[in-house]
């Protein structure tokens, strides 16, 4: 039986509408500063999409486009200024930064209260103990998509492929918070196919096109595809071989139109949360 496609576009539109309505109802003044360094075309697309989402939600957006030759100190100084700016509730530095930057030092410079990506060590620690204000946008978006299926995570076998700090690890933590039995796989995992085949909920965050094939998927699983891979023909494709896996799964996210739009919607939600905390 063909899987139901989880419509990330529609769900993200609903999240953004909720943010917009709350901002209007409670007359909240929220601002998001997005810093982009260099001219990576993919980063430019993401930044433009974030700007559009801000407009839609009634969040003021401030864009800082810096040349690739910008020095670390100059970026840190800008972050200090934004940390002190009352009109800015959230700060996002678009990653990856050019090679000469120390990304970790840049992230740590952002005030944890304005860290709407939730990448700062103190926010990561809070997520670990389940006492957080912000969740990292992509894993939080994946959770919304899982919730939309009506499948209860509690007691389910959950497998996350990928253990990056921004996707795989926090994703595993959020599934664990909802009482899933979680396995995290990575490039050294043995018998990956068998491990994945146990999953009631399978999240792929590998960064390899068509990596997850039908033989790795249990009948009736929920499959969340985080991957965004650009093929030689310019087309976007996920980590999951959609055509064959959608014949086996019960629910599946498409790429594009799945996790991607959710990431931006959750960023809007985090910016609203940041504004509420800072204004209270
Ligand atoms: P990373 O490259 O940081 O992590 C990839 C992970 O996949 C690593 O943990 C790696 O293992 C694991 N991996 C690689 N090869 C294999 C393999 N053969 N078998 C098992 N595991 C493997 O990527 P990110 O987490 O940053 O991103 C993952 C994907 O998600 C990318 O396509 C990215 O573009 C996309 N993405 C999408 C977002 C969205 O909004 N939709 C947001 C962020 C990312 P190891 O640790 O051992 O190296």
Distinctive features:
single chain; 280 residues; alpha/beta; Rossmann fold; 2 domains; 6-stranded parallel beta sheet; 3-stranded parallel beta sheet; 10 helices; binds NADPH dihydro-nicotinamide-adenine-dinucleotide phosphate
Protein model, in words:
This protein has two domains: 27-112, Rossmann fold (3-Layer(aba) Sandwich), CATH 3.40.50.10860; 136-260, 3-Layer(aba) Sandwich (Rossmann fold). It has a six-stranded parallel sheet with strand order 1-11-8-7-5-6. It is an alpha/beta fold. The model has no long low-confidence stretch (mean pLDDT 97). It contains ten helices and eleven strands. The protein is globular, with a radius of gyration of 19 Å. Bound molecules: NADPH dihydro-nicotinamide-adenine-dinucleotide phosphate. Residues 138, 161-164, 166-168, 185-189, 192, 205-208, 226-229, 259-260, 263 line the site of NADPH dihydro-nicotinamide-adenine-dinucleotide phosphate. The site of NADPH dihydro-nicotinamide-adenine-dinucleotide phosphate has 25 residues, from helix 10.
Ordered list of secondary-structure elements with their pairings:
Layout: E1 4-5, H1 8-25, E2 31-37, H2 41-57, E3 60-66, H3 72-84, E4 90-93, H4 103-109, H5 121-129, H6 137-148, E5 157-161, H7 168-177, E6 181-185, H8 192-197, E7 201-204, E8 222-225, E9 229-230, E10 236-237, H9 242-245, E11 251-252, H10 259-279
Parallel strand pairs: 1-11, 2-3, 2-4, 5-6, 5-7, 7-8, 8-11
Antiparallel strand pairs: 9-10
Helix pairs in contact: 1-10, 2-10, 6-7, 6-10
Residues 138, 161-164, 166-168, 185-189, 192, 205-208, 226-229, 259-260, 263 line the site of NADPH dihydro-nicotinamide-adenine-dinucleotide phosphate.
């Amino acid at each position: 039986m063909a899987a139901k496609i989880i419509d990330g576009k529609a769900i993200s539109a609903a999240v953004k509408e909720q943010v917009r309505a709350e901002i209007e109802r409670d007359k909240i003044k929220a601002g998001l500063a997005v810093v982009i360094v260099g001219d990576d075309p993919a980063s430019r697309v993401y930044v433009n999409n974030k700007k559009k989402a801000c407009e839609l939600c009634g969040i003021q957006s401030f864009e800082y486009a810096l040349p690739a030759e910008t020095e670390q100190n100059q970026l840190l100084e800008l972050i200090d200024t934004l940390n002190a700016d009352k009109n800015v509730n959230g700060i996002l530095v678009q990653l990856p930064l050019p090679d000469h930057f120390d990304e970790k030092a840049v992230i740590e410079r952002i005030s944890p209260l304005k860290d709407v990506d939730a990448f700062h060590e103190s926010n990561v620690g809070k997520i670990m103990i389940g006492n957080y204000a912000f969740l990292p946008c992509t894993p939080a978006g994946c959770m919304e998509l899982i919730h939309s299926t009506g499948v209860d995570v509690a007691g389910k076998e959950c497998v996350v492929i990928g253990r990056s700090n921004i996707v795989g690890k926090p994703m595993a933590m959020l599934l664990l918070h909802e009482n899933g039995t979680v396995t995290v796989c990575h490039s050294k995992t043995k018998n990956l196919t068998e491990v994945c085949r146990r999953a009631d909920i399978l999240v792929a965050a590998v960064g390899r096109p068509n990596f997850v094939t039908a033989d790795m998927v249990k009948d009736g699983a929920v499959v969340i595809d985080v991957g965004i891979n650009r093929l030689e023909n310019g087309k976007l494709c996920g980590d999951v071989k959609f055509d064959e896996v959608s014949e086996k799964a019960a629910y599946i996210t498409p790429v594009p139109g799945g996790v991607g739009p959710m990431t931006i919607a959750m960023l809007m939600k985090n910016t609203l949360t940041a504004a509420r905390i800072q204004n209270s």
